[in-house]
Automatic annotation (TrEMBL):
The lineage of its organism: Bacteria, Pseudomonadati, Pseudomonadota, Alphaproteobacteria, Hyphomicrobiales. The keyword GTP-binding does not apply. Keywords: Cytoplasm. This is Universal stress protein. It comes from the Bacteria. Residues 1-145 form the UspA domain. It comes from Shinella sedimenti. It is found in: Cytoplasm. Belongs to the universal stress protein A family. Transmembrane segments: none annotated.
Amino acid sequence: MYRHILVPTDGSDLSLAAVDQALALAKVLGSQVTALTVAEPLHFLPVTPAATATLRVDYEVHVKEDGARILGAVTEKANAAGVAIETLQITAGDAWRGIIDTAEQKGCDLIVMASHGRRGVSAFLMGSVTTKVLSHSKVPVLVYRA
């Protein structure tokens, strides 16, 4: 059935609950899991070249540390569950595109992700990474909602 599951996470409680579900499914199916965090590139108005360089370095350090923290927690959960895990942190302008591209590049046959379930105006204004993945992915998507 599903042999390689991609589980994107931002470290939120809801996405970590989806990680738990993905790991439980992977354990039952004997699947491997790739956990993914997607960071947005730094968008800013340049003030001075020196300030821009400092801001970029600080941002990149923060993003790497945050990703390592998030993926470290996922790795601990996977190890405790006895599930084979690979972790990956990428930078992408559109998180949904990064998720889909990663699933295709890694040969994943299922994406498991959380949805906050926003509707109406808030969904329109904020957008939904999950909705965009569902709309554009050729890989099946399992959505976890609490």
